[in-house]
From TrEMBL, chain A:
Pfam families: CoA_trans. The keyword Transferase applies. The keyword Transmembrane helix does not apply. This is 3-oxoadipate--succinyl-CoA transferase subunit B. It comes from Streptomyces sporangiiformans. Belongs to the 3-oxoacid CoA-transferase subunit B family. One of its GO terms (molecular function) is CoA-transferase activity. The lineage of its organism: Bacteria, Bacillati, Actinomycetota, Actinomycetes, Kitasatosporales.
Length: 257, 328
């Protein structure tokens, strides 16, 4: 089944880049899809002690099959712990036990604030999106947040959100609420890697995929994107990483589209 | 199943199970909905992606309830169906997507056209509303919402100053949510005894809090078991009988969600719902065929057919019994 010669797909690249950023992390709060692929790969490579906590309340899952959702029965059978919603959100998240929270969003701005509620006006939206779920809590309580954006385009990486569902620490502080975590510290896209250190800092371009130019990333970003000194070029997925992804993590290519 | 309910479902008296003094609260789903769900009620339907009380939602649709306020963390397919059947005027929720399988078509149409009152929260905001409701507290604080636009569109999200200084000695501000006390909460579970001691395992979500927050509670179960089964493992009782008003046996009543150890999630139906719900005519035809066209959930189950259920069957994975000990 291994075809290491085959060029990596964009999903594989995103999963590999995200997995490398998890080096040395202990607990990650992740949904199904790219975040779980990244966490599973990191577990086999750079973060052997990594524990994934799912929003359904599952900790230490040992699934017999690749789960379809965060609530798949295969995550529960053989799990180390299954806890209630008050325990998950109250004790695990709000109690400060999560190192990295993975979030997705329809829109992100330069400060790492996220919109997953609406496109257009909230009262009469052009598109009603699923909403927060636990994203507000993941943002407010994780030490840091990683965001994977499949599409790097100006309407997604935007100068002004249509609605701020999940605010970063700067917006929280402006509202009189003392922030706890750093907010979004990594944005992994098809063009490269954006990063920020924490409160008061903008997202800036720190690395690009081979063959991608700074101008290309700037044109695809909705705000005037700052570029880090010593911009790096991301090392393409190694054969070892691809083998693990393809043979061990997702052999049926359920998420490796 | 011997339900022993009276014909009207309104004047049953507490009966006793032979050999015990516990009241028998079993009744049919039809009777439970008729008695405990009224037009204009606030109805909480809980079960976090697991044990979703779909059969109860369908019975509410069959009985034509109107003007309901539905409270539920993840709206899911059953809410889309209740919306399409015109049962619901207000939705209180923290996630309005079709799991990870696309959109809830009817919900999107109604929100985008301004035809549904939507009170939007985050998951923990909803959890804290249940916690405040269950404990009859005036509000519940949480470290969420600071800087979010949600308080701008949901006036129930309010900020207070803590009466205690923060770690740095300075005043600390925190958002709070109000309690929710539904007229009725409906949950689905694996098993209960006839008086309502309810065993739940797998994802336990927020069912206990939602039941205690409510004025009345209906527990729908895969099977009724003898009290001795419940008492063999009392830590498994998530909801004690004193919090339960009606016990309804309704096998496979959580489809298309799942019941851990009984049947698996119908992922194909979740994906299919994105297409069904996208077209209002197709959605109406689905309700006609599968809800109005079935007399009760047993008819729905049998209409799905044996092959369908075979695909959702699961193998056994027994827990190892614990020893509670018995004093000599």
């Amino acid at each position: 089944m291994t075809v290491p010669a085959l060029a990596p797909t964009s999903s594989e690249v995103l999963a590999v880049v995200a997995s490398r950023e998890l080096a040395g992390k202990r607990t990650v709060f992740a949904g199904i899809g790219l975040p779980t692929l990244a966490a599973s790969l990191a577990h086999l490579t750079v973060a052997p002690g990594l524990e994934v906590v799912y929003e359904s309340g599952v900790c230490g899952a040992h699934p017999s099959h690749l789960p379809e959702t965060i609530a798949d029965s295969v995550l529960i059978t053989d799990a180390e712990a299954v806890i209630s919603m008050p325990a998950l959100f109250g004790y695990v998240l709000q109690g400060g036990h999560i190192d990295v929270g993975f979030l997705g969003a329809a829109q992100i701005d330069r400060w790492g604030n996220l919109n997953s509620s609406v496109i257009g006006d909230w009262h009469r939206p052009d598109v009603r999106l699923p909403g927060s779920g636990g994203a507000i809590e993941v943002m407010a309580n994780s030490r840091e947040v990683f965001v994977v954006m499949r599409r790097h385009e100006p309407r997604s990486l935007t100068d002004a959100l249509d609605f701020c569902t999940s605010p970063g620490p700067d917006r929280a502080r402006a509202d009189g609420i003392r922030p706890r975590g750093a907010g979004v510290t990594r944005v992994i896209t098809e063009l490269g890697l954006l990063a920020r250190g924490g409160p008061g800092e903008e997202l800036r371009l720190t690395a690009v995929h081979p063959g991608v130019t700074v101008d290309q990333v700037r044109a695809a970003t909705g705000w005037e994107l700052d570029v880090a000194d010593g911009l790096a070029v991301i090392e393409p997925p190694t054969i070892a990483e691809l083998r693990l992804l393809r043979d061990t993590v997702d052999p049926d290519r359920i998420y490796l589209r | 199943m011997d339900t022993q309910t009276d014909a009207t479902g309104r004047t049953t008296r507490a009966r006793t199970t032979p050999g015990t003094t516990a009241p028998d609260k079993t009744m049919s789903l039809r009777d439970a909905i008729a008695r405990y769900v009224h037009d204009g009620d606030t109805v909480c339907v809980e079960g976090f992606t697991h044990l979703i009380p779909t059969a109860a939602g369908h019975e509410i649709i069959r009985q034509g309830r109107r003007g309901l306020t539905v409270v539920r963390m993840t709206a899911d397919i059953v809410v889309d169906q209740m919306l399409a059947a015109d049962c619901v005027t207000t939705l209180v929720s923290s996630f309005v997507g079709n799991s990870s399988a696309g959109s809830l078509g009817e919900l999107r149409r109604r929100v985008e056209d301004g035809r549904l009152t939507f009170e939007e929260y985050s998951h923990y905001g909803m959890v804290c509303r249940y916690l405040a409701g269950a404990q009859r507290l005036p509000f519940y604080p949480l470290r969420s919402y600071g800087g979010s636009d949600l308080p701008r569109v949901n006036g129930q999200l309010r900020k207070v100053t803590s009466p205690y200084p923060g770690p740095d000695g300075e005043p600390e501000h925190v958002y709070v949510v109000p309690p929710v006390n539904p007229d009725v909460t409906i949950v689905h579970a694996q098993r209960a005894d006839r008086s309502g001691n309810t065993h739940v395992w797998g994802l336990t979500g927020v069912q206990a809090e939602a039941v205690y927050a409510a004025r009345t509670a209906i527990v729908v179960v895969e099977e009724i078991v003898d009290a001795s089964v419940v008492r063999s493992d009392p830590n498994r009782t998530l909801i004690p009988a004193h919090a339960v008003d009606a016990v309804v046996v309704c096998p496979r009543g959580a489809h298309p969600s799942f019941a851990q150890g009984y049947y698996d999630r119908d992922g194909a139906f979740y994906r299919e719902w994105a297409h069904i719900s996208k077209d209002p005519r197709r959605l109406a035809a689905w309700l006609d065929e599968w809800v109005y066209g079935t007399e009760d959930h047993a008819a729905y189950v049998s209409k799905l057919g044996r092959d369908h259920w075979e695909r959702l069957a699961v193998d056994e994975a027994l827990s190892i019994p614990v020893d509670y000990g018995r004093r000599r």
